[in-house]
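Dear Dr. L.,

I hope this message finds you well. Following up on our conversation about the binding site, I have prepared a predicted three-dimensional model of the protein together with S-adenosylmethionine. For your records, I am including the exact sequence and ligand specification that went into the calculation, followed by the structure tokens. Please feel free to forward this to your student if that is useful.
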Amino acid sequence: MSQPLRFVLLQLAAVLLAFWLLPRAGVLDQAITAGLLAAVVARVVHDRRWWMLIHAVFPVAIVGALALDVPPWVWLVAFVLMFVVYSGAVRSRVPLYLSNQHALGKLSEHIPPNARLLDIGAGTGTVLAWLRRQRPDVQLSGIELAWLPWLIGRLRLGKAATWLRGDAMALNLGGYDVIYAYLSPEPMADLWLKLQQEWQPGSRLISNSFAIPGVPPDEIVTVEDWKNSRLYIWHHR
Ligand SMILES: C[S@@+](CC[C@H](N)C(=O)[O-])C[C@H]1O[C@@H](n2cnc3c(N)ncnc32)[C@H](O)[C@@H]1O
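The resulting structure of the complex is given below.
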């Protein structure tokens, strides 16, 4: 059973249990109780500890949101927007966040002249739009899973890049000199296995922030940004 489905089922169970335990309590007390009950069980039911925090806060946040008395259509619009931006993350477990200028500057230093670069999980095209201006020698490609970021990238980049919509894990990664990835810890092991089959000698993988478990990088570049992020680089020789 997927983690989001576990989340929904556990929340429902905790809310019902809180109603049953405290039938006469105020709704806020019931929400706090439901959150605490869910948080305790979350430790066993989920794969990561941070689910406990989400479970604890969620029922209280719902009560707070209802108290705001916002028209229902606002929630509908917010839901649709979240869905088109983040629904892919339910499957891929990689949400959208963007490379910053510091990381892009360091990335550029590690792209050879006239390279063919592919951004896997290209988001809204931030990386390619920046490289289009700063590195006109580079042949740019990107692939993005989620529809809305892909559409924004499409409008933003025009013909400046090969801009694909789909699953990077289904694309042959063989025709590129540089593969740039800013994903999450989740897909890195699978990405490495895929590269073993497909990448060409002379090419390199540059991963922003996320290492590959058990595979030491050939280079680590420190990005001087607020979170002290790193670029991990592997060369295929
Ligand atoms: C952290 S964002 C990075 C965006 C952009 N590369 C940047 O650095 O600004 C990761 C993006 O990868 C996308 N993504 C995750 N898994 C993917 C996959 N298997 N194929 C294509 N895109 C994927 C997500 O939808 C998300 O937009």
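In brief: The beta strands are 116-120, 139-144, 162-165, 178-181, 204-208, 219-222, 230-235.

With kind regards,
A. P.
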